[in-house]
Structure formats: structure tokens, C-alpha cells
TrEMBL record, chain A:
Protein family membership: Belongs to the V-ATPase D subunit family.
GO biological process: proton motive force-driven plasma membrane ATP synthesis
PANTHER family linked: V-TYPE ATP SYNTHASE SUBUNIT D
Assigned GO CC terms: plasma membrane
Record keywords, A-Z: ATP synthesis, Cell membrane, Coiled coil, Hydrogen ion transport, Ion transport, Membrane, Transport
Assembly notes: Has multiple subunits with at least A(3), B(3), C, D, E, F, H, I and proteolipid K(x).
Organism for this UniProt entry: Hadarchaeum yellowstonense
Top-level taxon of origin: Archaea
Protein name: A-type ATP synthase subunit D
Regions annotated as coiled coil: 130-167
Function according to Swiss-Prot or TrEMBL: Component of the A-type ATP synthase that produces ATP from ADP in the presence of a proton gradient across the membrane.
UniProtKB/TrEMBL annotation, chain B:
NCBIfam families: PRK04115.1
Full protein name: UPF0216 protein APZ16_06075
HAMAP family in UniProt: UPF0216
UniProt xrefs under InterPro entries: UPF0216
Family to which the UniProt record says this protein belongs: Belongs to the UPF0216 family.
Pfam families: DUF61
Length: 212, 129
């Protein structure tokens, strides 16, 4: 109590403490609302990540299987050479969106799956296994980019949640109890002063009556 | 600590757009976005815009203002939120498969989670006190 309240206990101070307490309580309510919304957003994102990760891993498994098959049929060197010849560009649009003031990335990716003619390697010298491997890997790339967006979002939300939780706890367990303590102290002190005054007046009255 | 509270309260709604845009103009823009009070741009995903356009007849595309604001009000209780506006309430009602009343719709936590999952960029939180 003493740490929160050091100046003299008077009505002016009581009004100031009441005002500070009202602000702290309002801030606490709003930050708690924000925390609830952040928790919900985080859980939503985590659920999506779970599904997205499972799909991406499954797609990568298919991709690596196809690459292995391709290497077995065409040979490792030829497969690597064909991969070198392939165009390695994909169009990704990275922008931002706001979740309660937190900037998170939004990634929009165009269709990554290309047809065999636009990939860049020679169709005469390669096997159809290469086409399958390329197609499966292109599908995997799209899923991985989408997963990356979700993971960055989850990480950013988790950091903000931690920060907000610290603020809410500081208000709930430190500032608000201290201010309430200070307010009670001032009120008790003012009551005490009133009682002292009352007793003093009674005593003075008794002395004056005794003199008469 | 008081300064921190004031700063946090000031920051709560800083992401809200200066001016909202209609679904029609968002659909016709090459990179649909709105500018927030803090100066940052908030981009909408095209797939969400397409979803909204499927939910509404074309004649109402210019009446739907984006982003749809989800108002978190302390007086509604924890987890509840209000979505105001005739078309906004109508489109949210269609997603939740229930009717909106008096040009607004009150949504609860599981519904809110569903809305945010379906419309992460075209909806935004707004804190009311």
C-alpha cells in the first residue's frame, strides 16, 4: 500500500486514485478482450497449421518417391541435369494484414503446377517419370509456401499474446490491487480524521461548558 | 504503468481503416487494400472476395463495406461480438446459416472462430468501450 501511495491522504488524492483505478480497470477489461481474441486467433491458426502441415508432408513424400523413381529410371546425373535446366521462378505476392494491430504476412501464390512444355527441360531426352516428379514437387512448393505463411502468423500471434498476457497480469495482480489498497487507506485515514475532529469538537464543547 | 495503459488503449483500434471500401471496388482493384489509421496497408485475399461475391447478389456488392467490423464490447460479455450494418449482418448470417435482426447480428465465440477462419482478411476486430 505504501509503495502505491506516498503523498498525504486527502480528498484530492482520493479522487486521483479513483480516476487511476477506473482507467486501470478499463484497460484490464479491454486487454483481456484482446487476449481472448488473440487466443482464438492462435488456436484457429494452429488448427489450420496441423492440417496444412500433414498435407504438405504427404505431398513431399509423394514428390520424393517420384524423384527416386525418376532417378532409378533416368539415372541420377540426367535427373540432376534436367533439374538444372528447369525454370525456377514462381510468382508469389506477399502483402500484410492486420489482426488487432499485429502485422502478419498474407501470401498469395499463383498456380505452381506447370505443364511439361513450360518447365524448360527437353522432352526428347527425358522420361515421363521426370514429368511426374516435377508435378508432385510443384504441388508441394505451393503447400510449403502456404504453410510458411501460417507458421509466421502463429509465431507473431504467440509473441503478441505473451506481451498482452504480461500486461493483463501486471494490471490484475499488481496495479489494481495496489490502487484499491491505496484507495482504502485514504478512505480509512479520512474517516479517522473525521472521527478525530468530532472527538476534538466534543472535548472543546465540554471544556467550554465547564468554564461557564 | 498508466502511460503503458494509455498507450495500449490508443493502440487497440489503430489498425482500423481510415476509409472502408465496397466489395465492388475491392473486386475491381488489382491489389485490394485499405489504409489503417496507423498508416499501414491491410490487403484482402482475392479468394475471400470471391466467396463474399458468391454470397451476395451483384446489386449489393457496392453496399457491402470492407473490412467487416467485428465489435468486441465489454457490455456484451466475454467472447460475444456485434456486427452492424444491413448487408454486413446479412452476409455473416449466411455464413453462420442464421438470420440477422435489426441490421445487426450478435455472434458468440465458436461462431466468431468460424467467421475468422473463413474471412481472415475481410473482417477486422474493433474494440468498443
Amino acid at each position: 500500500m505504501a509503495a502505491a501511495f506516498t503523498s498525504s491522504p486527502n480528498r484530492m488524492e482520493l479522487m486521483k486514485v479513483r480516476k487511476r483505478l477506473a482507467l486501470a480497470e478499463k484497460g484490464h477489461d479491454l486487454l483481456k478482450d484482446k487476449m481472448d481474441a488473440l487466443v482464438m486467433e492462435l488456436f484457429n491458426t494452429l488448427k489450420t497449421i496441423q492440417k496444412s502441415r500433414a498435407t504438405a508432408i504427404e505431398q513431399l513424400r509423394k514428390g520424393y518417391e517420384a524423384v527416386s523413381a525418376c532417378m532409378a529410371v533416368m539415372g541420377t546425373f540426367e535427373t540432376m541435369q534436367a533439374a538444372e535446366e528447369t525454370k525456377k521462378e514462381i510468382q508469389i505476392e506477399i502483402s500484410e494484414r492486420n489482426i488487432m494491430g499485429i502485422e502478419v504476412p498474407t501470401v498469395e501464390i499463383e498456380e505452381t503446377e506447370r505443364n511439361a512444355l513450360t518447365r524448360g527441360y527437353s522432352l526428347h531426352t527425358t522420361s515421363s517419370h521426370l514429368d511426374t516428379a516435377a508435378r508432385e514437387m510443384e504441388r508441394a512448393v505451393k503447400l510449403l509456401v502456404e504453410l510458411a505463411e501460417l507458421e509466421v502468423t502463429a509465431l507473431t500471434l504467440a509473441r503478441e499474446l505473451e506481451r498482452t498476457k504480461r500486461r493483463v497480469n501486471a494490471l490484475e495482480y499488481i496495479l489494481i490491487p495496489r490502487l484499491q489498497g491505496a484507495m482504502n487507506f485514504i478512505m480509512m485515514r479520512l474517516d479517522e480524521m473525521e472521527r478525530e475532529n468530532f472527538t476534538r469538537l466534543k472535548r472543546i464543547k465540554a471544556i467550554l461548558e465547564g468554564r461557564e | 504503468m498508466e502511460q503503458v495503459i494509455k498507450f495500449e488503449l490508443g493502440r487497440l483500434n489503430a489498425h482500423l481503416p481510415v476509409k472502408r471500401i465496397s466489395l465492388k471496388s475491392a473486386l475491381s482493384a488489382s491489389r485490394p487494400a485499405v489504409q489503417g489509421k496507423n498508416g499501414n496497408l491491410h490487403y484482402f485475399k482475392r479468394e475471400e472476395l470471391k466467396l463474399l461475391s458468391k454470397l451476395l447478389p451483384e446489386s449489393e456488392w457496392d453496399k457491402l463495406q470492407l473490412p467487416i467490423l467485428i465489435a468486441l464490447e465489454s457490455k456484451l460479455g466475454r467472447g460475444a461480438a456485434r456486427i452492424s450494418g444491413e448487408i454486413e449482418a446479412k452476409v455473416i448470417g449466411k455464413i453462420l446459416q442464421r438470420e440477422a435482426t435489426d441490421n445487426e447480428i450478435i455472434v458468440y465465440r465458436p461462431e466468431l472462430a468460424l467467421i475468422r477462419r473463413k474471412l481472415p482478411t475481410t473482417t477486422q476486430y474493433m474494440f468498443v468501450w
